[in-house]
Write a structure and sequence with these properties.
By secondary structure, the chain is mainly β. Helix content is 8%, strand content 37%. The chain has one domain: Lipoxygenase-1 (Sandwich), CATH 2.60.60.30. Strand 16 and strand 17 form a beta hairpin. This is TerD domain-containing protein.
Length: 263
Amino acid sequence: MGLVIDTGKRTSQPRKYGNLAVDTGDVTIHTGNIVLGDPLPDTRQNREEPEGTNVPIPDIKRKKPDDITDTAGSLEMKMGQKISLNQKASDISRLIIGLEWELNNTGNQDIALDVSIFMVDSANKTEEDNFIFYNNPASRCGAISLGSDHHIGIKECYDEVVQLDLNRAPSHIQTLAVTVTIDEADERGQNFGQVSNAYLKIIDANTRKELLFYNFAEHLSAETAIVVTEIYRYKDEWKINAIGRGFKGGLAALCDNYGIETE
């Protein structure tokens, strides 16, 4: 069974990326005879654009992470660095990923960033149910939930949050690849060169302590998708690897990279 992403309510034909058909309107995901959920509302905040060009758009209403979490002692990761989450966190079943960024003014078109997570097995394959994104926001095993924060009230501090319970990840899952894509990047002529101050942060939900942070897009320019980090099994522990690898080709390129079989 292959994965077809057809987002409906458009008169144009879905575009083909290899074997993956992608159309970008209101989202409905069809996998054979299975429909994974109804379209979710767009929860992105509306922002007023300041005058001028290449000016970061301020997010006035959002609280700062320092207001709610303890950022003292947070470790800054560099690209390629690997750290044990078991050694940093009090409980790997109660972790939160916080992602934040600033969007440069691009005239009349907003830049929409989407977070997805690929749950990858030892053969570097991702089953369709283990592709976690805006229209399939929670894994069946309970390991991943987009937009949740273990009920500690910090999700308002970030552009996106992901709730993690690594103890619930099935034994055959070896890697959780955290990715970000720009919606309709090719049509709008957008790329990660128009995104600045993009950070991934890991928060311990028990202590509200920020454990580490990583500036993941400072080296990108023409790319439209990025593997921000991979959280992976190593012997009896979970580690995090600061990847920062950019792709041209958006979501389709990421699906190819993580072995989603498409038709």
